[in-house]
Amino acid sequence: MTDKTSAGVLVFRRRDGADVEVLIGHMGGPFFARKDSGAWSIPKGEYEPELEDARAAASREFHEELGLFAPPGDWIPLGDVRYGSGKGKKTVTVWAVEGDLDPADVVPGTFEMEWPPRSGRMASFPEIDRVDWFDLVTAHDKLGTGQRPFLDRLKDYLSEA
């Protein structure tokens, strides 16, 4: 199986001058409906590197998943992380941008899958079923393991800035 490539945008805001919060989404669909820890994700999506620039893909995927445009501002490169995803590996590239979006404004994209399994019936589910702001410690618990390094990189960047 070939590696997959994804790109995403991690929006962050500073509260009361010091506390940093990030905007992440709970993965939609029946597999994650009753899960919380490890069931949240940075808004991201797959792209084909030979056909599309990673930053353009990150912007497009943010809009597709949340129905909102990424906030204007400087994009901070957080680099790549490679981790297991399903039966293969995935390389994810993420940028952070400071902004303050309202989770109530999110209109998630949808995907279709056979549900229940082997039923022959297709059902539609939101890509992300809810979005919220979390401090870095809470977000670390909620994000899937492979995406957690991006939080550490953001924290390091902000402490050096």
UniProtKB/TrEMBL annotation:
Entries under CDD domains matching the protein: NUDIX_Hydrolase
Xref: Pfam families: NUDIX (PF00293)
Top-level lineage group: Bacteria
Domain Nudix hydrolase: 2-156
SUPFAM superfamilies: Nudix
Full protein name: NUDIX domain-containing protein
